Amino acid sequence: MSHDDPTPRPDKRTLRRDILTARNELTAADVREAAEALAARALAMPEVARAHAVAAYVSVGAEPGTLALLDALRARGVRVLLPVLLPDNDLDWGEYAGESSLTRVRHGGRMELCEPAGERLGPDAVTEADVVLLPGVAVDGRGTRLGRGGGSYDRVLARLERAGSRPALLVLLYDAEVVERVPGEPHDLPVDAVVTPSGVRRFR
């Protein structure tokens, strides 16, 4: 921050806390309505429409909802991969076979996650995806994503880069979570687009 800028920018922890607080004030109807709009917006994107495999995740709590999108992708015959959190915070992957194929898993003292109950495909399975949906808390005008803070998806992005994979990187957020600036690190890889209930914004 320069001395000419009198406005201090929030750090990652503060920004994450403020946005999660706002999410927790949403009603179940708000979350459901937004999830339907997010699914419609995402499904209309050319990169999603032509995808054969999509790596996604199951939203929990007041996160922007993903289940409507997962079911619509599966109905189109798209292979949907879902993450399984490993003890070292890396991610394995399994295939989504409908809501009944999910199991709730609590990792330590953290929130319960919904994970696929079937066969484990290995951490490298994500490199086969044409589109990767990244969970996020915020994104800024440069495409810098603020994640949940566990670092799991930093590993996923590094794995994609090592493999030479270039899937479309998308983040699903509420409209108010597209912010002026996310504190970034030099290694942060920008996302290609953010999908919100009101539209799609592309960054590269």
UniProtKB/TrEMBL annotation:
UniProt similarity note: Belongs to the 5-formyltetrahydrofolate cyclo-ligase family.
Lineage: Bacteria, Bacillati, Actinomycetota, Actinomycetes, Kitasatosporales
Catalytic class of the enzyme: ligase
Requisite cofactors: Mg(2+)
Membrane-spanning segments: none
One annotated GO molecular function: 5-formyltetrahydrofolate cyclo-ligase activity
Enzyme Commission no: 6.3.3.2
Sorted UniProt keywords: ATP-binding, Ligase, Magnesium, Metal-binding, Nucleotide-binding
Annotated Gene3D superfamilies: NagB/RpiA/CoA transferase-like
Catalysis: reaction(s): (6S)-5-formyl-5,6,7,8-tetrahydrofolate + ATP = (6R)-5,10-methenyltetrahydrofolate + ADP + phosphate
Keyword flag Zinc: no
The keyword Aminoacyl-tRNA synthetase belongs to this UniProt entry's keyword annotation: no
Name this protein carries in UniProt: 5-formyltetrahydrofolate cyclo-ligase
